[in-house]
Amino acid sequence: MTQEQSTKSVTKMAEEEVNSFRAVDCTPLDADPLRWWKTHEHLYPHMAMLARRYLAVPGTSVPSESVLSTVGDIVTSSKSVLSTENVDILIFLKKR
């Protein structure tokens, strides 16, 4: 099998997986999406892998309240002309 044929078959498999997923009824709003994907990962293996990556909550070592407090200290009315990049750098340096 050539690389082009292999790519076409992967593309075709992905298209079939997406089409099959779209045909499924919607889940209730109160359903746990991670549990749903765990239950259905054998039907949609490629999409399940993406769901695990994008539905997971990244861990953090800094509590969000602390970061928001730091932002409040840095971004004041007198410093409101700072660019977003400079604000990000200042927050990073303060939290190191």
TrEMBL record:
Pfam families (alphabetical): Dimer_Tnp_hAT
GO MF, one annotated term: protein dimerization activity
Annotated InterPro entries: HATC_C_dom, RNaseH-like_sf, ZnF_BED_domain_contain
Superkingdom of this protein's organism: Eukaryota
Domain HAT C-terminal dimerisation: 27-95
Protein name as catalogued: Zinc finger BED domain-containing protein 1
Organism whose genome encodes this protein: Merluccius polli
Lineage, opening ranks: Eukaryota, Metazoa, Chordata, Craniata, Vertebrata
Gene from which the chain derives: ZBED1_220
